[in-house]
Amino acid sequence: MIRKKILLIGDFGVGKTSLIRRYIDNTFSDNYLTTIGVKISKKRLSIDTIECEILIWDIEGATPIKKIPHSYFKGASGAIFVCDVSRGQTIDDLYEHINSFLIVNPDAKYVIAYNKIDMLSNQQKESLKIKLSGNEFMTSAKNDENVKNLFETLAKEMIL
Amino acid sequence: MRTIQIVLNAILSKNIFEYILVDTNLKVIESSQGVERYLGEKPKDGDDILDFIPEFVGNEEEIKKIFIKRYCLFTLETVQKNDYYINISIEYCDSKTAIVLLHNVTAITINQQNLLQYSNESTLLYNTLNKVINNQNSMVFIANRNKMEFANHQFLNYFDIPDLEYLKHNDIGIFRLYEHSLNNYLELYEALIDKENYIKINQDSFIIQASKIEETHILFTLTNITDISSKLNIDPLTGIYRKNYLNDIASKILKDNEKFALVVLDLDDFKKINDTYGHQVGDNILKEFVKLVKIQIRKEDIFARWGGEEFLLLMKDTTPQDVKHRIESIRTQIDEYIFDVVEHITCSFGIACTTKDDDIDSLLYRADKALYEAKATGKNRVIIKID
């Protein structure tokens, strides 16, 4: 069976762990608990009859004084870059995260999650939606919006 | 192998390390008893290590090079497995065997996580508070006794200060702009307590307020009222009313047939001060003068600037004798007060009390005439015209 490593990368508190919990266990908690180090979750998928196992790395978020160790990036086939739409700085920081990751894995695939869209009004969502390109998703782990789509779009990109 | 086993037994006895031995195809040869608590079950001989340590996925080829290079740099720190935190590393044993070491770092990691949680929550709160402060319309700054520690964007932009670090090392001494004689921010705070105060910076007028947030730190806010003050008829230099406002009030009182006294105050020889010391000193004198008068007048009295060094005071509910007595007291205070730079100045006063057919112009005419008489008869005196 094909095994692929993917990472969720972004600033601290953007909801990386919540997206994984929603995708793997279909659960959500409003309580913020900082992730330290790395935790791996597995998900089996069948993509166009190809059986595969996605190993999802939930790694601790970047803080202003602590960057993500590059050792976590090695061997990854893909990444989900996550930002929090209610914190502009986390969107600004995406570019740096993507660059750091692609230096280690130039051929890897990636998607971007604009998370916590449950905090936006319908009008704000509409204006954000217009700006998004094909590999960018508006997500809400809280309301289960676009989470499955996010992970499985990346999986297809990597497998097919 | 025998030596390795002895070493392993020694470190395993401390319950910190567990191990899995793997062959060149990364199949399990043997593992220690304690790996089960991290992996959920004990791997059997021939099992694929990737089923138990999926952290190796994507790095299989690099790990296999250990049998050629005889060393491996693959180490993963702080991996959460089954409620434990472990460091995973792989070392060369012999040409057919490598050892995967699982180092239990749970205790230290939980302490680090508590710190990180606190740090991240503090950062989020700090960022939010920063946004709140930077989105205020007012300029906000925090100072200790001698220097500024923080200022919001509005403050930095207004004073064209590049950043907080620059501000911390190049204090702009706002306290001196409020009053020349003040030496630090603590004195400014003490001067502002329980009062509505005004400060003029460049061509703008601000309400300045202060509150202690710590024994050593004071929060100051500066609210720009340049536009509002013109609408509200407030004199931007001194913070008291303009003549138009006093006129409106006086007309209303006259219409209601209420009695009052109108006082014209004029600083003696003020032109000489401006000519000798400059307009900045002149402005400071006017502010000091207003402060002195404000201390002595009643809450219901209306004090306004007519223009230049001339002021008006409207006093209700008073008799000619009482008003003369009060104004004489103000005159004495000014005469005895030591002003900054010029030290001594005096003021002349003309008082008119309302009569039956008075309008604001007739009243002002008589008060002005009284003032003229005060000036003509030697200055620094009070003349009252009852009718």
Structure description:
The complex is a heterodimer of chains A (160) and B (387). Chain A has helices at residues 16-25, 88-92, 94-104, 122-131, 147-159, and strands spanning 2-10, 38-47, 50-59, 78-84, 109-115, 136-138. Chain A is an alpha/beta fold and 160 residues long. Chain A has one domain: Rossmann fold (3-Layer(aba) Sandwich). A six-stranded mixed sheet of chain A has the order 2-3-1-4-5-6, with helices on both faces. Chain A is globular. Chain B has three domains: 2-104, 2-Layer Sandwich (Beta-Lactamase), CATH 3.30.450.20; 136-227, Beta-Lactamase; 240-385, Reverse transcriptase/Diguanylate cyclase domain (Alpha-Beta Plaits). Chain B is built from 16 helices and 16 strands. Chain B has helices at 2-12, 36-39, 49-52, 60-64, 66-69, 106-134, 153-158, 164-169, 174-178, 185-192, 226-231, 243-255, 270-277, 279-296, 320-336, 360-376; strands spanning 17-22, 28-31, 75-81, 84-94, 97-104, 139-143, 148-151, 197-201, 204-212, 218-224, 241-242, 260-267, 302-307, 310-316, 347-353, 382-385. In chain B, the strands form three sheets. A six-stranded mixed sheet of chain B has the order 11-13-14-12-15-16, sandwiched between helices. A five-stranded antiparallel sheet of chain B has the order 2-1-5-4-3. In chain B, strands 7-6-10-9-8 form a five-stranded antiparallel sheet. In chain B, β13 and β14 (310-316) form a beta hairpin. In chain B, α13 packs across α14 and α14 (279-296) packs across α15 (320-336). Chain B is rod-shaped, with a radius of gyration of 40 Å. β2 (38-47) of chain A pairs parallel with β3 of chain B.
